[in-house]
Amino acid sequence: MNVQISRDIPVSYFDEISHIIANDEFLMLDRYGHHRNTSRLMHSVNVSYLSWRIARRMHCDESIAARAGLLHDFCPYDFREKTPTGEHQAFYHPKAAVENSERVFNINDKEKSIIHSHMFPLGPLPRNREAWIITVVDKICACLEFFHVSFALARKNRFVVNG
Ligand SMILES: [Fe+2]
Ligand SMILES: [Fe+2]
To answer: Whole domain around residue 58: which residue ranges?
Structure first.
């Protein structure tokens, strides 16, 4: 499996996330539907790219926003499955995403905290500006995807997974 990104996506964004989108376990997110009209992979890229742009504009840490945004739903399993802890997926999946991201990409404490709080208010309070960006952008992307609004990288000709 490999990923192609069209030329109008800035190289500086791609550099932040290239090691993640080269990882086969991460690319498995493409197999799972998300918000009715997209895959979990495309949703993650949308959140990452938009968060990166906003973080840059707000003089926040855009590298962390790009990576944590991409990994916030790193859960390659069906969300209809029962969780091992018995919690609702809304509460369980951020913890699973932290665990998977730590295991595969060795993320730092700030990235862990951002991923952990992305479901706020169904989870902990975001602790820094990048975490607020991601929790808000996640909800905006979810709404746009659900109502099938094409934006950012969601158009297939701009970000294509082959395989
Ligand atoms: Fe999520
Ligand atoms: Fe999400």
So the answer is: 2-162
- Distance (angstroms) between ligand 1 centre and the Cα of 138 equals 7
pLDDT tens-digit series, residues 22-55: 999 999 998 988 777 688 998 898 899 899 999 9
CATH number at residue 147: 1.10.3210.10
Q: Please state whether the predicted TM-score (pTM) of the whole model is above 0.70.
A: yes
Handedness of CA 103, 1, 27, 140 (dihedral sign): positive
Domain count, the chain: 1
**Dihedral (Cα; 22, 26, 28, 30), 10-degree rounding:** -80
Residues flanking ion ligand 1, Cβ below 5 Å: 73
Which ligand has the nearest atom to the CA of 122?
1
72 CA distance to ligand 1 middle (Å): 6
Question: Phi/psi of residue 121, each to 5°?
Answer: -85, 5
